[in-house]
Each structure stands twice: as C-alpha cells, then as structure tokens.
C-alpha cells in the first residue's frame, strides 16, 4: 500500500514539475522546477530499492541542472526581470509545506516500519552498488569515459562563452545599446 501511494504522489509531483518547466516564461522557474523534477524521478529508484541509481540520479542529473541554473543566471541576467504576481502567498506556502511534509513521511515510513527485503538478484559477496560498479567499469568503461569527456568539453565551452561579456549587464543598458549588441553578435 505504501509503494502505491508513494508512486502516485511522486508521479503527480514529477509531471507537475515538468509541466511548469515547459509552460513557464521565466528561465529561473523553469530551471528550478527541472531540478525538482529530477529529484522526484530519483524517488522512483528509491522505491524500487535501487539506492545507487537514485543517488546517481540526484548527484549527476540534478547537479547538471544546477550547473545549467548557474549558467542561466549568468547569461540571461534574469534577476532584474522577475516580477512576482502570487495572488495568495499564504495558500502557496501552506500547500508547499503540506507537500514537503508528505514527502518526508513517505521517505521516513519504511525506516520506521518493517524492513522487508525484496528478493532482488544481488551477488552474495557484495551488494547491488558493487554490481553496478563492476559492470560500469568493465563492460561499459569506454562509453562512460566518452560521456565524461563530452561533459568536460561542454563545461569548458560554457565557461568560455560566459566569460566573453561578463562586464556587461543588460539591466544597465538602454534598449538601443542592447539592439546594437545583438546585431554585433549576429
């Protein structure tokens, strides 16, 4: 029963976060909800007793979204254009608190309740985490290293692009100066 309730709650939250990501006009809201959606996806791994994959989901994908968040803040100067229009902030605060409480209860209830081990095919000498590591660093070592190099190149490229015009802020420029800069970039 616990797994069914948790699955539907996390499914609803994940779909909600990604819907906000798609339909919002604010870059910071989109990146924040994208990171929250990635964290909620990791909850499915934890429900399936794949703790290693859940932790990797949080560290790798949510970390990548946070790096994207930082680049978004640098590129778009989004803080100058944020205008909040929340009609009832107390209701939003109350609903956010209730959702946070439900998530905490869902994560804590298996620890408090019975510890029932699933019949998963785990190697006798070591656990599931070690099995994933052995396969990752033997059979899939080359794709793993290629992905790491691609991420490194993307990070260096992002840093170079961000550093080109760090001395300019669009919030301090007039509309004519912004148009001239955009024409120069083309």
From TrEMBL:
Presence of the UniProt keyword Membrane in the record: yes
Reactions catalysed, as given in the entry: a quinone + NADH + 5 H(+)(in) = a quinol + NAD(+) + 4 H(+)(out)
InterPro entries xref list: NADH_UbQ/plastoQ_OxRdtase_su6, Nuo/plastoQ_OxRdtase_6_NuoJ
Major place of residence: membrane
Bilayer topology term: Multi-pass membrane protein
Gene3D superfamilies in alphabetical order: NADH-ubiquinone/plastoquinone oxidoreductase chain 6, subunit NuoJ
Protein origin, superkingdom: Bacteria
One Pfam family matching this protein: Oxidored_q3
Record-listed E.C. numbers: 7.1.1.-
Listed transmembrane segments: 6-23, 28-48, 54-79, 91-112, 140-162
GO cellular component, one term: plasma membrane
Subcellular location: Cell membrane
Keywords: Cell membrane, Membrane, NAD, Oxidoreductase, Quinone, Transmembrane, Transmembrane helix, Ubiquinone
Main enzyme class: translocase
GO molecular function, one term: quinone binding
Key word Membrane present: yes
Physiological role: NDH-1 shuttles electrons from NADH, via FMN and iron-sulfur (Fe-S) centers, to quinones in the respiratory chain. Couples the redox reaction to proton translocation (for every two electrons transferred, four hydrogen ions are translocated across the cytoplasmic membrane), and thus conserves the redox energy in a proton gradient.
Family, per entry: Belongs to the complex I subunit 6 family.
Entry-linked NCBIfam families: PRK06638.2-2
Protein name: NADH-quinone oxidoreductase subunit J
Organism: Malaciobacter molluscorum LMG 25693
